[in-house]
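Work package 3, deliverable 3.1, input record:
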Amino acid sequence: MDDMDRENETPEARHVSRKTVLRGALAAGIAAPAVLMGGPALARTLTGPAAEDAEPTPMCDDGDGPTVAQIEGPYFKPNSPLRSSMVDGSGVALTLSGYVFGRGCQPISGVLLDFWQADTNGAYDNTGFRFRGHQFTDSRGLYTLTTIVPGLYPGRTRHIHVKAQAPGQPILTTQLYFPNEPRNNTDTIYDPRLLMNVQTVGGGRQAAFDFVLNVAQNPGPTPTATSTTTPPPGGGTWAPGVAYAAGARVTYGGVGYVCLQGHTSMTGWEPPNVPALWRAG
Ligand SMILES: [Fe+2]
């Protein structure tokens, strides 16, 4: 059995397949706004009409719990630029997209996703921000990253690093992997539950991965952040709805904070709640 066959037959690979089914349902436009507003749970939407309402809300994680965490590694840097494209003309084009769900299988908007990876030669940019960038899931819980296939470096299989954080929730730090990579079998960090679904399209690759964050979701409205508050003039005290730049200083609850990543603040993203965005000091 060669490497490709072994990976294709693992139970873990089938987990990815099920998430792909869920993702496909969303992409087909099945009641996405209703899902976002707390309508029928996603899996139930797939399987039948509202007559099945008495059933418990299915999980979208196949019983394994939320997307597993992995080590950060030595190359994370805060202050990555806000961008969904990290291409610079080098390497094999890779488009990675997917949804971010909570435990109730409902997509979550406004999730901060911070990606970093090696360049096509397997090197990280530790002085600048090549192949580093963060973005937020849109109103449908969708993200798209335009990048390149990362190169290999000694001791590891091919991978992409990511931090994911829903508003007001803990950070998930993990890594995503490519199927059919020979080094997957020897990399002790590699986890097949984190395999992307990767297709070759033209001269590039299209990859899909849906995250499931450990965020409780009830049948009611999802805890997505919204803001109707008008920020106070002059700043100084943290407020929602303000476009803060990296390096901006605010106070919140009598404590000073420094902004680590440019973003527009939201209720639920108060500085103590989002260490990816604010550092006390
Ligand atoms: Fe790495």
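The CA atoms of residues 93 and 148 lie 4 Å apart.
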